[in-house]
C-alpha cells in the first residue's frame, strides 16, 4: 500500500524523486545556477525585445517557468525560458493585433502564454509524449549540431566587437561578418580570448571548479581594470531591478478565438524544442527522458508563468548547455538559477552591468562546441547510411531553414522512415537445417516439392499488406509445384482488419487454384481479431495450428506419397516415414496384381 501511494505521489509530483539527493549535489547545482543566471541576463533582455515585450519580461520568463519546468519535468539539465524561435513567433502573431510594448500587446501575449500552456498540459495528460520517440537520435544530433553552429555564428559579432544587427538567415549572418570584419575591435577580441583561455585553463587543472563563472568574472575584471569599456567593449549595462509580480491574464472570448491557432503552433514548437534539447543533453548525461512528463512540465511552466508576467517559454539550448557544462547534477540547478537571477536583479544589479558581452560570447562559443557530439557523428557516418542521411538533412535544414521548421523536417523524416520500415515486414522462406533440423533461410538447401514454409517477421496492417502479398507470390514463383503453404506467424505481434481481410483473400485465391494455405504460431491479439471478424470460419479452424512442429507433422503426412517416393531429398524428419509408406503401398499393390501383370511389368 505504501509503495502504491509513493508511486502515485511521485507520478503527480516528480520532484519528490530527486529532492532528497540535493543535499549531496547542492554545491554543484548552486554554482551551475549562478553561471546560468549570469548568462541569461543579456539573453532575456534580447529575447524580450525580439518578442516586442519590455526588457524585464524576458527576465521574468527566465525565472518562474524555469522553476516550474524543473519541478514537474523529467530532465535533470533542461532549463526553460525565453527562446529565439518562440519570441519571433509571438511577435509575428501579436504585432498585427496591437502595438508592440503596449499594455494591450502585453495582455494578449500573457493570454497567449496561458493558452499555450493549457494545450501543452492537455497533450501531456493525454500521454502523447511518446510521439517524440519517433524522433531518432540522428535527428537530435543533426539538430543539435546545426543549432550549435547557429548559436556560435550569432555570437561572432560580439566576439569581434562588431556593431551590425544579426540577420535571420545563417548565410546572411556570415556575409555580414565578412562585410564588417574590417571594423574589428581589438579590445573586444582580447577580452574574448582571455575569457576563453581562463575557461580552458580552469577545466584542465581544476575541472570541478565553475570554469565559466570564473572566466566571465575574469573578463569583467580585465575590461574594467583596463578601461576597455571606454574603447568600445560593450557591457551588459543597467538592468531592471524588478522581480515578477502576480496578476491575472485578461480574458476575452474574442481574443481567445483569435489566439487559438498561434497558441497551438507555439505549443507544438515549444514541446518539440524542449524535448529535443532535453534528449540532446541526455545523450551526454546518460539520462532517460519521459516525453509525457516533459509535456506536462512545459505546460505547467507556461500556465503558472502567465500569472507572473512571463511570456511563452521553452527549453533553451544555450542555458541548458551551460547548465550541463557547469556541472549541474539535478533540476535544483534551474531553481538556484532563478533565485540567483532574482538576487542579482535585486541586490547586485549594478555590478552585473559591467559584464562584457564579448566575455559571454566566448563562454557561449564553448557551450556551442560542447553541444556537438563528434563521436556519434563519426560512428553514424561509418555504420548507417540511412541514419547519416537523416542527420545530414536535419543539420542542413537547421542551418538554412527556419529553426522550428528544421525540427519538423527531422521529425517527419524519422516518422517516414519508421513507417516505411514497418510497411515492409520480412517475408522469408524457411527450410529445416540439415543437422539440427531448425528452420533457417538458406537458398542452397533443398525444398519440398509439395510443401512450402514462409515466415512473416513484422506487423500486418494496411500499409504492409501489398508488400506481403507481392513477396509471397514472388517466393511461390520459385517453387510452382508447391500446392500447400504453411505461414509461420510467431513473429507477428499486431494485425489490423485490413491485414485479416488480406489473409482471407489469399486463402480464397489459393483454393480457387487448387492450392491451400495453413497457419501456425498465431499470437493472442491476432487470433482475437480473426475470431471476432469471422476470418477463422472462412479459413477453417483445421487450417490453424498452435505450433509449427504439429503443423509440419500433420501436413507432411497428408502429402502425395507418389511424389514423396520419387523425391531425392529428406527435407523433413517425417519424410522417412512418408517414403516408407510409399514403398509399402507399392509392395502391397504388386502382391495383389495378377501374376501376368507382374511379369509384364
Secondary-structure blueprint of this entry?
Layout: H1 2-12, H2 15-18, H3 22-50, H4 55-60, H5 64-72, E1 80-81, H6 84-94, H7 103-125, H8 137-160, H9 170-180, H10 186-205, H11 211-226, H12 253-285, H13 291-306, E2 314-315, H14 317-325, H15 332-346, H16 349-352, H17 357-371, H18 374-383, H19 385-400, H20 403-422, E3 426-432, E4 439-440, E5 451-457, H21 465-478, E6 484-488, H22 497-512, E7 516-520, H23 524-533, H24 535-539, E8 544-545, H25 548-557, H26 561-566, H27 574-592, H28 595-600
Parallel strand pairs: 5-6, 6-7, 7-8
Antiparallel strand pairs: 1-2, 3-4, 3-5
Helix pairs in contact: 3-14, 3-15, 5-13, 5-15, 6-12, 7-12, 7-13, 8-9, 8-12, 8-17, 8-19, 8-20, 10-11, 10-17, 11-17, 12-13, 12-14, 14-17, 18-19, 19-20
Provide key terms for this protein.
Transcription Regulator spoIIAA, 601 residues, two-stranded antiparallel ribbon, six-stranded mixed sheet, mainly alpha
Notes on the protein architecture:
The protein has helices at 2-12, 15-18, 22-50, 55-60, 64-72, 84-94, 103-125, 137-160, 170-180, 186-205, 211-226, 253-285, 291-306, 317-325, 332-346, 349-352, 357-371, 374-383, 385-400, 403-422, 465-478, 497-512, 524-533, 535-539, 548-557, 561-566, 574-592, 595-600; strands at 80-81, 314-315, 426-432, 439-440, 451-457, 484-488, 516-520, 544-545. The protein is mostly helical. The protein folds into 2 domains: 22-417, no CATH class; 426-591, Transcription Regulator spoIIAA (2-Layer Sandwich). A 6-stranded mixed beta sheet has the order 4-3-5-6-7-8. Helix 8 runs parallel beside helix 19. The longest helix has 33 residues, at 253-285. It starts with a helix and ends with a helix. Mean pLDDT is 86; it is low at 586-601.
Amino acid at each position: 500500500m505504501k509503495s502504491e501511494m509513493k508511486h502515485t505521489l511521485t507520478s503527480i509530483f516528480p520532484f519528490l524523486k530527486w529532492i532528497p539527493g540535493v543535499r549531496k549535489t547542492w554545491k554543484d547545482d548552486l554554482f551551475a545556477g549562478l553561471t546560468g543566471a549570469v548568462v541569461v541576463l543579456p539573453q532575456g533582455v534580447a529575447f524580450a525585445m525580439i518578442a516586442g515585450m519590455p526588457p524585464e519580461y524576458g527576465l521574468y520568463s527566465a525565472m518562474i517557468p524555469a522553476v516550474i519546468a524543473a519541478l514537474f519535468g523529467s530532465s535533470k539539465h533542461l532549463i526553460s525560458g525565453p527562446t529565439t524561435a518562440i519570441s519571433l513567433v509571438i511577435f509575428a502573431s501579436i504585432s498585427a493585433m496591437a502595438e508592440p510594448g503596449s499594455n494591450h500587446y502585453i495582455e494578449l501575449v500573457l493570454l497567449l502564454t496561458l493558452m499555450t500552456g493549457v494545450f501543452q498540459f492537455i497533450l501531456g495528460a493525454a500521454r502523447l509524449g511518446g510521439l517524440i520517440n519517433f524522433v531518432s537520435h540522428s535527428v537530435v544530433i543533426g539538430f543539435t549540431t546545426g543549432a550549435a553552429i547557429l548559436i556560435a555564428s550569432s555570437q561572432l559579432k560580439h566576439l569581434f566587437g562588431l556593431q551590425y544587427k544579426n540577420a535571420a538567415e545563417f548565410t546572411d549572418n556570415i556575409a555580414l561578418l565578412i562585410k564588417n570584419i574590417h571594423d574589428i575591435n581589438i579590445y573586444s577580441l582580447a577580452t574574448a580570448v582571455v575569457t576563453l583561455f581562463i575557461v580552458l585553463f580552469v577545466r584542465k587543472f581544476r575541472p570541478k571548479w565553475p570554469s565559466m563563472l570564473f572566466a566571465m568574472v575574469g573578463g569583467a575584471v580585465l575590461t574594467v581594470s583596463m578601461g576597455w569599456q571606454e574603447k568600445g567593449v560593450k557591457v551588459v549595462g543597467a538592468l531592471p531591478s524588478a522581480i515578477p509580480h502576480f496578476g491575472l491574464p485578461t480574458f476575452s472570448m474574442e481574443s481567445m478565438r483569435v489566439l487559438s491557432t498561434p497558441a497551438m503552433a507555439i505549443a507544438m514548437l515549444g514541446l518539440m524544442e524542449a524535448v529535443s534539447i532535453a534528449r540532446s543533453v541526455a545523450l551526454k548525461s546518460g539520462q532517460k527522458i519521459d516525453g509525457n512528463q516533459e509535456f506536462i512540465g512545459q505546460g505547467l511552466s507556461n500556465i503558472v508563468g502567465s500569472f507572473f508576467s512571463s511570456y511563452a517559454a521553452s527549453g533553451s539550448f544555450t542555458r541548458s548547455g551551460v547548465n550541463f557544462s557547469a556541472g549541474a547534477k539535478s533540476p535544483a540547478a534551474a531553481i538556484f538559477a532563478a533565485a540567483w537571477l532574482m538576487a542579482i536583479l535585486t541586490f547586485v544589479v549594478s555590478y552585473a552591468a559591467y559584464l562584457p558581452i564579448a566575455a559571454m560570447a566566448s563562454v557561449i562559443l564553448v557551450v556551442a562546441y560542447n553541444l556537438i557530439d563528434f563521436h556519434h557523428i563519426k560512428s553514424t557516418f561509418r555504420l548507417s547510411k540511412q541514419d547519416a542521411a537523416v542527420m545530414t538533412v536535419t543539420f542542413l535544414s537547421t542551418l538554412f531553414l527556419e529553426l522550428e521548421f528544421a525540427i519538423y523536417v527531422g521529425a517527419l523524416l524519422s516518422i517516414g522512415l519508421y513507417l516505411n520500415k514497418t510497411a515492409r515486414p520480412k517475408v522469408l522462406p524457411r527450410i529445416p537445417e540439415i543437422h539440427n533440423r531448425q528452420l533457417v533461410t538458406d537458398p542452397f538447401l533443398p525444398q519440398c516439392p509439395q510443401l512450402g514454409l514462409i515466415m512473416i517477421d513484422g506487423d500486418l496492417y494496411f500499409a504492409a499488406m501489398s508488400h506481403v502479398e507481392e513477396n509471397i507470390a514472388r517466393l511461390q514463383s520459385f517453387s510452382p509445384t508447391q500446392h500447400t503453404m504453411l505461414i509461420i506467424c510467431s513473429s507477428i505481434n499486431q494485425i489490423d482488419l485490413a491485414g485479416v481481410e488480406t489473409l482471407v483473400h489469399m486463402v480464397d485465391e489459393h483454393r480457387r487454384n487448387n492450392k491451400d494455405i495453413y497457419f501456425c504460431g498465431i499470437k493472442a491479439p491476432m487470433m482475437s481479431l480473426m475470431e471476432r471478424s469471422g476470418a477463422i470460419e472462412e479459413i477453417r479452424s483445421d487450417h490453424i495450428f498452435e505450433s509449427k512442429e504439429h503443423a509440419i507433422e500433420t501436413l507432411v503426412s497428408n502429402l502425395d506419397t507418389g511424389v514423396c517416393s520419387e523425391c531425392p531429398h529428406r527435407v523433413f524428419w517425417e519424410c522417412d516415414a512418408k517414403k516408407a509408406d510409399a514403398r509399402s503401398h507399392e509392395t502391397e499393390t504388386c502382391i495383389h496384381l495378377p501374376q501376368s501383370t507382374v511379369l509384364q511389368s
